Amino acid sequence: MTKYIAKRLVALVVILFFISLGTFFLVHILPGDPTVTILGPNDNAQNRAILLHQLGLNKPLWDQYLIWIGHVLSGNLGQSYVTHQTVTSVIADAFPIDIELIVISQLIAFPIAIVLALFAARRPNKAFDKVATTTTFAGLALPPFIVAPLMVIVFSIHFHVFPGPASYVPISQGFWTNIDSMLLPSIVLAIGPIVIYYRLLRNDLIATLQEEFITMARSKGMTDRRVLLKHAFRPSSISLLASAGINIASLITGAFVVEFLLQMPGLGYELVNAIDQRDYLVVQGIVLVVAVAVVIINFIVDFFFSVVDPRIARD
Amino acid sequence: MTDRLVPVEPLQVGASVSIRAVDADVGGAAAAYTEVVGKKKLGWFFWACAAWIALVILAAIFANLLPLKNPLFQDYNALNKGPSSSHLLGTDDLGRDIFSRIIYGARVSLVIGFGAILIGLAIGGTLGIMSGYLRGKFDTVTNSASYVLLAYPAIVAIIAIVAFWGNAWWQITLILGVAASPLLYRVVRASTLSYSTREFVMSARALGASNGRILVKEILPNVLPAIASFSLIGVATVIVLEGSLAFLGLSVQPPTPSWGNMINEGRTELTTDPWLVLFPALAIFLFLLALNFVGDRLRQHFDVTVGRL
Amino acid sequence: MSRSTRSAGLTFAEAGSDTTLLEVDDLHTTFSTGRGHLRAVDGVSLTLARSETVGIVGESGSGKTVLSRSIMGLVPREGVTRTGSVKFLGHEILNAPDKELRQLWGSQIAMVFQDPMTSLNPVMRIGKQIAEPLRLHTDMDGKEATAQALSLLTQVGIPSPEERLRAYPGQLSGGMRQRVMIAIALACAPRLLLADEPTTGLDVTVQAQILDLLASLQKDRNMAMILVTHDLGVVATRTDKIIVMYAGNVVEQAPTATLFSSMAMPYTEALLGSTPRIANPSHTRLAAIEGRPPDLINVPPGCPFAPRCAYARDICHQVRPPLVPAAEPDHLFACWFPLGGRTGPPPPAVTVGAGLAGADRAAGPGPGAPS
């Protein structure tokens, strides 16, 4: 068992290394010059050269990488060229918004998807199933950039149910106002996952219901509802949670898009800004943190499920 | 029983559960229920969607030949007008005809969507089929590489690359294509793996067929249907990605119309002139719906390996 | 074990040991498939007394599994039709509403399934799975049910039962899983146990153990058992009577001893011949029966076994033989030209080439029936 963990950890470290490498070179291989942003396009070449030297950007790339990694490992992600805020504080301010968005949207998505899937799998291809599957299917064709503006028109402007864009209020200023401002974005973000979870769970449940042990469970005299919940749902829910866990990458993507659309000061917004201004260190920092978070979450989910699910073979 | 869960191999971190989910999605869970009555028919809606897809593609290709207004012409006498007899779907705030912009805009979305998937298949698909067939060292290396790549949240890389490099249609297509390769690699590999161990392949080899011949004649025809259906859904995803990029101002820039940037431009006028957003949104919605439906149905239809009875 | 059974609305007359427990009359089970109607069980009748054991023997596809499930009622909701009559303790259960059946299942009638690997929930602990029928049908609470599960595990001969309670099915061997299945089935002391190929796939030694276990448990609890298998060797010493099935029909039925001593149907003889015997010298070729079972959707006329029968004659291909009694008591068979020099039923008068007359059910074209 410990050998297994150790193996996995080694692989994790290797992946993290490659990610840091990729992040760094990604940013630096692309054209673009931060000095232009900082000094303005009209400054002369000499000042630029001085600034370049100051920022350490004229060293060979590999050196720059090592310096950067050294700093990162000691907790220093650098400073923004533009605002001089530390990258860490930029991230610390912005990331929680995305996290909260993801959490609330999942709290909405899971119950809806699970309930729909359970009802649909009970009587496959009958009325409820057909309606639910078709409706959720339409959800696939409704990406956030379509839904968000439409929802804003209908729910914020017309019906005044939710506050409109740019209305984010942090928790520190009031719990319920915060939740209020989070609802619309969370619903928008929840649509995609609802579709995915529903389809996955419904198909998984139907497949599970075909298995022999379900017939056996029925033969014990259980009601259909009980069979569904206690026997069919168990193995299927494991698969659902597992795939939800690795879905985290696309959830973060979605969160970035949604918060940008609705003008919330989250990490997506900061990222696009930083890219725009060639704020290298901020870009590197954000990308690195997000990538590392995703990989670690994947790792934990993967590990957790290979331990928890008795069906998976382990070496 | 479906291959829902494949035993975990060593040295695979983070994405092995996702791999299971992907593999399962390709092979089984998505199409597990085979009724006693027989294989699922494609249905009238399937053909309607397929027809719609074909229609949009044809319209985009032959847009020049159609009696459309010039999508770039700015008619200052007809700003923000609603649908009328001269402008079928109205005009935008620069007086351009929305209907023709939507059709020309389809070009961008289609080229980027299909182009990216074709690139992804060329790279990822080839590697995947080789991986699944040859296995061994080649497979271990490429497989592990794909894990690393898939673990990376692609959107940030895409945003960064597009922003730094350029947002011409061909650049975006290339970037999205490369970004799609790892996932297509996995899908093709999973599909190939399930076939390469079957008897007809072994018998072909026993008859002395070369590897290349086997790949092309035996494995490819079997793998193609599954790949085709997955690719259609992939095209839908890429189109969504392009739309999101447009919203961040990172896609093809106006005046060249794309569905995404039309919505982006119309965002500010939502309350006053909602059709600026509604019509392109409708266009995207219908096309995505058709793509997803056709892709999904094909997947169910061709998944003969699963199902009891 | 003291228990009170929750069975609202259903009362069963207290049965003496000779009362008929189960009465099946002309049971037909048909599946609607894309290609037509599949007659899996085509008119089967049998009776079972309180602590009798009946063996149902046949090849795969003979309908024996469908039969046991049809008797119990464990058929899919859609696409299956059953006609006839199934009476359990005098109470008709064939088309009883689900609610009634659920009260019977697990508490009065229980089934041991064929493949323990797929029949146990892989993500639920063993103890929980055994306790389930107890929690459903008795007033026991969690602790009592677990204690009872423990006792059941001991009764079925599983070593270190306390550890096994918390184990998952994947952690047990095939033989142990099968014992767990038996424990589950017997949890509420049912009156009727249907064992569907309980030993297929197990080692020969384990097979014997399982069968012995079933026999002793049955004796202890005064339980009736239906033992479904393809292996005549299994039923030879452990049943009171045997029913031989082919293509959904009963082709021979007799008390066990009678069947082996004076079998009438050529199919039974062929089955016996194809059973491997330890006593045979090694490398003895098994006398496999040539040919394949018939298509159950487009049933050809005549005796279903005729195409593969060594003794078949013209009439066998044209008219289906009825099930008739033999000289020995309780012995029925369906053959125009039975073995052992006895006379079969009088065949109806048919002229070759003149089409069909007589008691044939699936009337097809006349001569030119498949051979």
Explain this structure to me?
The complex is a heterotrimer of chains A (315), B (309) and C (371). In chain A, 77% of the residues lie in helices and 0% in strands. Chain A contains 13 helices and no strands. The mean pLDDT of chain A is 80. Chain B has a single domain (44-60, 95-308), classed as MetI-like fold (Orthogonal Bundle), CATH 1.10.3720.10. Chain B contains ten helices and no strands. In chain B, helix 4 packs across helix 6 (169-196) and helix 9 runs antiparallel to helix 10. Chain C has a domain at 117-189. Classes of the chains: A mainly alpha (315), B mainly alpha (309), C alpha/beta (371).
Number of helices of chain B: 10
CATH superfamily of chain B: MetI-like
**What is the 3D form of chain C?**
globular
Tell me the fraction of residues in β-strands of chain C, as a range. 15-25%
- The helix tally of chain C amounts to 12
Q: How large a portion of the residues of chain B is in β-strands, by DSSP E?
A: under 5%
Strand tally of chain C is 12
Give the tally of β-strands of chain B: 0
The main pleated sheet of chain C reads as:
8 strands, mixed
Largest interface: A-B, 73 and 69 residues
Q: What is the CATH level 1 assignment of chain B?
A: Mainly Alpha
Most strands sheet of chain B: none
Q: Could you state the order of secondary-structure elements of chain C as H and E?
A: EEEHEEHEHHHHHEHEHEEHHHEE
Q: What value does the Rg of chain C take, in angstroms?
A: 22 Å
Helix percentage range of chain B:
55-70%
**Which overall shape of chain B is indicated by the principal axes computed on the Cα atoms?**
elongated
Summarize the structure.
Chain A is built from 13 helices and no strands.
Question: Which features does this protein show?
Answer:
heterotrimer, A: 315 residues, mainly alpha, globular, C: 371 residues, alpha/beta, eight-stranded mixed sheet, four-stranded antiparallel sheet, 12 helices, 29% helix, disordered C terminus
